[in-house]
Amino acid sequence: MRLRLHGLSDFARWFTPTFMNKRFDTWFYVARAPERLIAACDGYETVDAEWLSPASALAMGEAGERTIIFPTRLNLELLAQAHSAQDCITCTEARAIEAVLPQIVQRDGKNFLTIPESAGYGIASEAVG
């Protein structure tokens, strides 16, 4: 299979928080997958694959069946708003992508990972520690 890069639409851009030892500038993309596509793993970067809807993945995370980290959860919530693959691509191409840099804030003596509301995810935070 050949990856047609013109078929990718920028979905999100996240930076690893400044307090992390390893920092990444990560781009997320959406694309329509060909019918009957079989996902294959390389055994190094990816070791398992399954096709899930965003809602199913979120439910599995809520049930403790999967570990879903903060940026993944927020991106899945955004993906789950689409009614189809084409709707997802159309909505993605219509919105401006703002680079997201999570930060730690303290509330009531607890640490929360937060992002700016302007990032397009609404008010989002998660308790840490």
Report on this structure.
The chain is of the alpha+beta class and about 130 residues long. It is built from three helices and five strands. The protein has a three-stranded antiparallel β-sheet with strand order 3-4-5, with no helix packed on it. The protein has a two-stranded antiparallel sheet with strand order 1-2. The longest helix is centred in the middle third of the chain and has 11 residues, at about 70-80. The radius of gyration is 16 Å and the shape is globular. The chain starts with 8 loop residues before the first strand and ends with a strand.
Q: How many E strands?
A: 5
Proportion in helices: 10-25%
End-to-end Cα distance: 43 Å
Number of helices: 3
Largest sheet: 3 strands, antiparallel
Relative strand content: 15-25%
Cα shape: globular
What structural category characterises the helix and strand content?
alpha+beta
Number of structural units classed as domains: 1
> What number is the mean pLDDT?
92
Side-by-side strand order of the widest sheet = 3-4-5
**Secondary-structure element order, N to C:** EEHHHEEE
Give a brief rundown of this model.
The protein is of the alpha+beta class and 129 residues long. The chain has three helices and five strands; from the N terminus they run E-E-H-H-H-E-E-E.
What does the secondary structure layout of this molecule look like, with pairings?
Blueprint lengths: L8 E7 L9 E6 L23 H9 L7 H11 L4 H10 L8 E5 L2 E5 L10 E4 L1
Antiparallel strand pairs: 1-2, 3-4, 4-5
Helix pairs in contact: 1-2
